[in-house]
């Protein structure tokens, strides 16, 4: 009697190269579809206001002056630290370039009120007509 010879089966193998390719494609998809939020350079706890209004996207962006809880003054959206004298000269030069310049004060609720008043005085000395303050809406 002749017994048939059995062919040895190869053990199944996982093709690692294909898995790596799939992983890279998924990683690229994840990176492309993720929304990256721009984090503010300075974290402030804004005061609350029941009359706060959100500005429209069609308006020109105001010049932002930020005041942290220690009273340090920062100018612009990139939050460059400035002294009061430099702030006055910057406001005067920018107001001369753009007569319709708007100023927005972004002060922490724990910021010294004296610093806020000094910034408002500097804006008035530079003939800036429109000065606003950032607030957040009252939680309801």
Give a written overview of the molecule.
- It is a single chain.
- The chain has 140 residues and is of the alpha/beta class.
- It has a domain at 48-137: Nucleotidyltransferase, domain 5, CATH 3.30.420.270.
- 32% of the residues lie in helices and 18% in strands.
- It has three helices and seven strands, in the order H-E-E-E-E-H-E-H-E-E.
- The chain has helices at 16-33, 84-97, 113-125, and strands spanning 48-49, 63-67, 73-75, 80-82, 102-107, 130-133, 136-137.
- The protein has a five-stranded mixed β-sheet with strand order 4-3-2-5-6. It has a two-stranded parallel ribbon with strand order 1-7.
- Helix 2 (84-97) packs parallel to helix 3 (113-125).
- The longest helix has 18 residues, at 16-33.
- It is rod-shaped.
- The N and C termini lie far apart (91 Å).
- The mean pLDDT is 81.
What are the secondary-structure elements, in order, as H or E?
HEEEEHEHEE
Q: How much of the sequence is in beta strands?
A: 15-25%
Spatial separation of the terminal alpha carbons: 91 Å
Q: How do the strands of the widest beta sheet line up side by side?
A: 4-3-2-5-6
- The overall pLDDT average reads 81
Estimated structural class: alpha/beta
Give the tally of β-strands.
Answer: 7
Mind describing the biggest β-sheet?
Answer: 5 strands, mixed
CATH class of the domain at 48-137: Alpha Beta
Shape: rod-shaped
- Contiguous uncertain segments of 5+ residues: none
Number of helices: 3
CATH fold naming of the domain at 48-137 = Nucleotidyltransferase, domain 5
Radius of gyration: 30 Å
Q: In which range does the helix fraction lie?
A: 25-40%
